[in-house]
């Protein structure tokens, strides 16, 4: 059933994706509204699917292949909605919608496999670890989306073309706010999440395997994240430079995510 | 439908003519009262703005001599004004009103004030009872049309003056202008205008630097701003988010190194340079710095030109909407004309049916509910069949604007006039329509 709900969610996201693209192309309030409603429905179904998976099993299956992506997709969408409520803009949707769709797609089209992680003695810490890290990921992606739109808008203003699609994008200041605030929220989550991971590792293996690619990449990602916040805070970096850094952080995040497939600790047990 | 409109606007008449025909706001009630007493005028409204003076009326029968009213009301020799006046009737008057309310007839197409002005004119005429039935419907419809034009086309969405383009761009950079500081370098008329626009949109303070310090003090005084010695320019300029330059300097005042300096002092918070000086006061190289946006006079004017072109394109779409709406309004009014006749025809036949049933009931003796029902449905069926064709003919005639003739015929055939239907105020027959 969980997979069925996930596929329903995927359908909703697909509708949302189409309409968000339509609403970027021309002035249409209704396309925007449909996109939002579809995304909202998608979130609900995704949550139902996640809940069906996690709660009855009474064990942590979060890091399993087909639960991780929907959870991340759900969190990204949730943050997108929060941004929409505050700033009344759907522009980060250019990045957020395709990504959420892709994450859900990967999970929904796979075979139904629910595999638990390497057994751990500290399940409570494990939940904290996963939840916080995922929240950090979601924030990073949203920030990347806003930075990307910032670049488009900045280029439009510099080149002095201000018609069509570009005139409907939000102001630079607003995009900058979204980008920085989601980083500011995401960074503590990422930091605490990594600390929680260390606690779990200590409890399970007695030590942290720093040579594991997943762990190395995660630390690298955290460092880029830190750099991003630091430069923004002290030098007020924004625009192109900030966007390049955000892209860098996003790339390391993707690699760190993909490292699941190579890592001994986070590796998914394959059937 | 008997609408008639007379007036002048910014196209038909120069200001010397328009100013003689203006009806000041305080005079409107008086003018409306006199207009309502004018022979043949049933309803009336007066719209008097700086760009137009128009009198819209519904007449009782055929055309009314509105020129006579003008001659009567204004102390002028109307013959001199004749070539400036336009007079429109029926659907041409309807179309004109729709175009005016939708801001298609404005000097700056799409400007939003005119709708408010029409609404005010309507409100004062309505308060006096000068507008009550069909004119009321017409104006209500005009407001709906104006709203439709505004939402379905982008006619009023872009800025069409240099100052408003500057404000629009500033909003694209800073989001809101609240709390933003404006720096005027050079105290020209244009920069003063732009500053006024920015302040009206939320900017908080103004600094003025000018080669002649007195002039700076004078201009700063107007905005409760701060005058700054020209020698202090580079030390103080980073305090401003928006810089407007208009000095007569023969070469650039702001060069790349200044931009870099400002950015580092401002921790990279963005700056917007509006350079309206020729030769330019700001080196275009500055635009290449992250966080600095430079627009010169050509850039701004180009934006204005392209926005005006956009509006023209949107105006064509708006005209199409208005065509449809005029047609629809006309059909609706004409259908309304035949409604009282249809109602009285139905009443008439229903009375006959009831009377006939009552007449035979005594002879039939007690009836079962089933029998009652059969009689009801039989008689109703006959009446409906008889009525079907006349009603259909009336409705078709309404759309084909021969309503008056058909209404007359139906009334005479069924002797409806004598029975006098109970319909409301405006059942009066519409006048001939060619």
Architecture overview:
The complex is a heterodimer of chains A (about 270) and B (about 425). Helix content of chain A is about 75%, strand content about 0%. Chain A is an all-alpha fold and about 270 residues long. Chain A has helices spanning about 1-25, 30-55, 65-85, 95-110, 125-160, 170-205, 215-235, 240-260. In chain B, the strands form two sheets. Chain B has a six-stranded parallel beta sheet with strand order 7-6-5-8-9-10. The termini of chain B are close together. The model of chain B is unreliable at about 420-434 (pLDDT under 50). At the A-B interface, helix 5, helix 6 and helix 8 of A face helix 8 and helix 13 of B.
Strand content of chain B: 5-15%
List how many beta strands of chain B DSSP finds. 10
Poorly predicted segments of chain B = 421-434
The string of secondary-structure elements of chain B, in order, is EHHEEHHEHHHHEHEHEHEHEEHHHH
Overall form of chain B: elongated
How many helices of chain A in DSSP terms?
Answer: 8
Largest sheet of chain A: none
Average pLDDT of chain A: 75
């Amino acid at each position: 059933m969980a997979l069925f709900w996930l596929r329903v969610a995927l359908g909703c996201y697909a509708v949302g994706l189409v309409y968000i693209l339509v609403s970027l192309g021309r002035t249409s309030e209704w396309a925007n509204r449909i996109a939002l409603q579809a995304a909202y429905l998608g979130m609900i179904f995704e949550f139902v699917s996640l809940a069906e998976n996690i709660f009855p099993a009474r064990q942590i299956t979060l890091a399993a292949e087909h639960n991780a992506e929907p959870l991340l997709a759900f969190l990204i969408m949730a943050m997108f909605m929060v941004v929409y409520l505050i700033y009344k803009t759907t522009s980060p949707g250019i990045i957020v919608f395709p990504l959420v769709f892709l994450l859900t797609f990967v999970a929904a089209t796979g075979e139904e496999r629910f595999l638990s992680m390497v057994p751990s003695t500290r399940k409570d810490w494990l939940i904290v670890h996963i939840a916080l890290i995922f929240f950090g990921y979601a924030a990073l992606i949203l920030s990347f989306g806003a930075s990307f739109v910032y670049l488009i808008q900045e280029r439009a203003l510099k080149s002095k073309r201000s018609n069509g699609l570009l005139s409907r994008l939000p102001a630079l200041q607003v995009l900058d706010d979204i980008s920085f605030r989601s980083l500011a929220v995401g960074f503590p989550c990422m930091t605490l999440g990594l600390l929680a991971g260390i606690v779990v590792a200590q409890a399970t293996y007695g030590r942290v395997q720093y040579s594991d690619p997943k762990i190395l990449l995660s630390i690298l990602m955290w460092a880029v994240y830190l750099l991003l916040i630091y430069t923004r805070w002290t030098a007020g970096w924004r625009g192109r430079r900030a966007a390049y850094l955000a892209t860098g952080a996003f790339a390391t995040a993707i690699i760190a995510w993909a490292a699941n497939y190579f890592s001994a600790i986070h590796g998914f047990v394959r059937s | 439908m008997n609408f008639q409109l007379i007036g002048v606007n910014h196209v038909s008449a120069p200001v010397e003519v328009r100013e003689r025909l203006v009806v000041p706001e305080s005079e409107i009630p008086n003018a409306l009262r006199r207009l309502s007493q004018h022979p043949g005028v049933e309803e009336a409204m007066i719209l008097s703005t700086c760009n137009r003076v128009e009198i819209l009326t519904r007449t009782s029968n055929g055309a009314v001599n509105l020129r006579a009213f003008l001659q009567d009301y204004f102390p002028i020799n109307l013959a001199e004004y004749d070539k400036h006046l336009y007079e429109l009737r029926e659907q041409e008057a309807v179309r004109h009103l729709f175009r005016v309310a939708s801001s298609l007839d404005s000097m700056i197409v799409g400007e939003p004030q005119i709708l408010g002005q029409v609404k005010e004119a309507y409100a004062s005429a309505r308060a006096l009872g000068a507008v009550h039935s069909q004119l009321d419907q017409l104006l209500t419809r005009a407001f709906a049309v104006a709203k439709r034009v505004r939402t379905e086309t982008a006619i009023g969405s872009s800025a069409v003056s240099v100052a408003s383009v500057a404000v629009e761009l500033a909003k694209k950079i800073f989001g809101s202008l609240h709390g933003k500081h404006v720096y005027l370098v050079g105290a020209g008329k244009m920069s003063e205008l732009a500053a006024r626009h920015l302040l009206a949109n939320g900017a908080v303070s103004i600094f003025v630097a000018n080669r002649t310090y007195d002039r700076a003090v004078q201009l700063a005084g107007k905005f409760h701003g701060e005058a700054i010695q020209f020698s202090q320019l580079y030390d103080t300029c980073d305090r401003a988010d928006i810089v407007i330059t208009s000095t007569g300097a023969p070469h650039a005042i702001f060069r790349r190194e200044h931009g870099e300096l400002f950015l580092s002092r401002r921790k990279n918070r963005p700056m917007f340079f509006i350079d309206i000086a020729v030769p330019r006061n700001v080196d275009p190289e500055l635009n290449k710095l992250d966080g600095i946006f430079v627009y010169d006079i050509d850039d701004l004017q180009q934006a204005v030109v392209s926005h005006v072109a956009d509006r023209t394109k949107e105006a064509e779409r708006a005209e199409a909407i208005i065509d449809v709406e005029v047609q629809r309004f006309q059909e609706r009014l004409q259908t309304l004309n035949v409604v009282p006749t249809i109602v009285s025809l139905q009443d008439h036949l229903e009375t006959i049916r009831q009377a006939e049933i009552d007449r035979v009931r005594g002879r039939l003796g007690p009836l079962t509910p089933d029998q009652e029902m059969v009689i009801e449905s039989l008689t109703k069926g006959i009446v409906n069949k008889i009525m079907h064709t006349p009603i259909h003919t009336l409705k078709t005639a309404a759309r084909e604007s021969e309503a008056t003739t058909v209404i007359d015929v139906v009334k005479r055939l069924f002797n409806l006039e004598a029975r006098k239907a109970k319909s409301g105020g405006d059942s009066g027959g519409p006048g001939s329509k060619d």
